[in-house]
Amino acid sequence: MMVRFSIQEILDKINDGVPFEAVAEDYSFTLKVEAYVPYVCAAVHDGHQFRNELWPYCTHSAYERWYEEDPSTKEMVLNHPIVIAGLDSRFEYDLNRPPETAIYKDAWGKPLWKEELPAFMVDESLRKHENFYRVVKALIQKLEGLHNTCLVFDMHSYNWRRWDRVVPVWNLGTANVDGEKYANTIELWCSTLADMTLPNAIDVSAGINDTFQGNGYFLKFITQHFKNTLVLATEISKVYCDEEKQVIFPEVVRGVKEYLEKVIPQVVKVFHEYHGK
Question: How far is CA 245 from CA 66, 81, 176, 249, in A?
Answer without folding.
Answer: 11, 33, 34, 11
